[in-house]
TrEMBL record:
Matches recorded under PANTHER family: THIOL:DISULFIDE INTERCHANGE PROTEIN DSBE (PTHR42852)
Residues in Thioredoxin domain copies: 245-384
CDD domains: TlpA_like_family
GO terms, biological process: cytochrome complex assembly
Protein name, per record: AhpC/TSA family protein
Signal peptide: 1-19
Any one GO CC term of the record: cell envelope
Length: 384
């Protein structure tokens, strides 16, 4: 369930990418009726210059009117203002920008989640294309209450209601199939589109079936856009992510020290089911996952399950403190380098991430978060 929701949100949102050979001049003029800002400014981020460097810009707002101009490669930018009374929140608009003059208008409305309504963008064929793409996805999914589905899923997880979880997963599979088909249709029909390239760019950082889809969709694209900077980035992402496609393959081996300097090898765990867990003390989502891993460890450790945690920390004291605070009894190792050698070996592009490895050293599963780990171990050890 969470995978579908995550992918759907990412694809309809704005993320930056590059296409070096397509730098063009642009101008954005905007009018937000009734706009209130604490500093009288509008901000823009996500511009990409000829060197592939992401840039930002700031302009003054007068009676809700503002303008940005410059040069950028085709990309998705985020225009926003700060919120009155909420300094850590913004009022964002995601806009696909290419060559030419673009006009943006909206109405400031504090009752809306984004504080904006009736957002209209004119003069950007690339943005129009993104709207068509979004509409195709929305039409494919139909009238789905994602908020209710998410709440139902969380409730089922809390109650450990396996019947409800299976039913929700069936719904997820059905929606996921529709979503992927709509994406496939759009990308196949638009092989020179930078909207297609942006979609593939984001998916190229994924794992499992979405990585396979990224490879397939990248194959649809025209050679001209493949040779652009975003095309080169996608190719590099796909090559790197493929290192993590280890399910059904030997996990290999590595050695790293514990906090007290004792060397530990992954092969030391042969004969057991071991969760190779990548995390860090500074990673909030990682810390949030620890209780799930701990519950699985307590339940199945005596049956032959263990955990080997690899930290991306660079500060030994913070690493040790996090282990103590979260009361994590399993073995922890790290080379105390942000670019941990095991991260490179397993193609980990973000944390938390994990690999479940069997007694024979073969990778069984990846990315078992939340109750997914417990359910997988219940399946392996044939218990409920």
């Amino acid at each position: 369930m969470k995978n579908l929701l995550l992918v759907y949100v990412i694809l309809l949102g704005c993320f930056s990418a590059n296409a070096q050979e397509f730098v063009k001049k642009f101008r954005i003029e905007g009018h937000i009726k009734g706009l209130e800002t604490p500093d009288g400014k509008m901000y823009l981020r996500g511009l990409v210059n000829a060197n592939g460097v992401n840039q930002t810009d700031t302009v003054e707002v007068h009676d809700g009117r503002f303008s940005f101009s410059g040069e950028t490669e085709p990309t998705c930018v985020k225009i926003y203002s700060k919120r009155v009374g909420y300094p850590n929140y913004i009022n964002p608009m995601d806009i696909f920008v290419g060559e030419g003059n673009i006009y943006v208008e909206a109405i400031y409305d504090t009752t809306e989640y984004t504080f904006l309504r009736d957002v209209k963008v004119k003069g950007s064929p690339l943005h129009d294309e993104s709207v068509i793409y979004n509409r195709k996805l929305t039409d494919a999914l139909g009238h789905v209450d994602f908020e209710k589905l998410q709440k139902d899923y969380m409730t089922a997880q809390e109650k450990r209601d396996t019947t409800a979880l299976r039913k929700l997963n069936e719904i997820n599979d059905e929606l996921s199939t529709k979503l992927k088909q709509a994406m496939d249709d759009f990308i196949r029909d638009n092989p020179t589109s930078f909207v297609s390239m942006h979609v593939i760019s984001e998916i190229s950082r994924a794992t499992g079936e979405y990585l396979a889809l990224a490879k397939k969709w990248f194959g649809y694209m025209n050679a001209s856009v493949k040779s652009s900077l975003i095309g080169k980035r996608i190719a590099k992402n796909l090559e790197y992510a493929s290192k993590g496609e280890l399910i059904g393959k030997p996990a290999g081996d590595f050695e790293q020290p514990t906090a007290d300097g004792k060397p530990v090898r992954l092969s030391d765990y042969r004969g057991k089911y071991v969760l190779l867990d990548f995390w860090a003390s500074w990673c909030g989502p990682c810390r949030a996952e620890n209780p799930h891993v701990l519950a699985a460890y307590k339940r199945f450790h005596d049956k032959g399950f263990d955990v080997l945690a690899v930290s991306l920390d660079t500060d030994a004291d913070k690493w040790k403190k996090a282990i103590e605070e979260d009361a994590l009894p399993w073995t922890h190792v790290s080379d105390l380098k942000r670019k941990n050698a095991a991260v490179e070996q397993f193609g980990v592009s973000g944390i938390p991430d994990n690999f479940l490895i069997g007694p024979d050293g073969i990778v069984i599963a990846r990315g078992l978060r939340g109750d997914a780990l417990m359910m997988k171990l219940e399946e392996i050890f044939k218990v409920k």
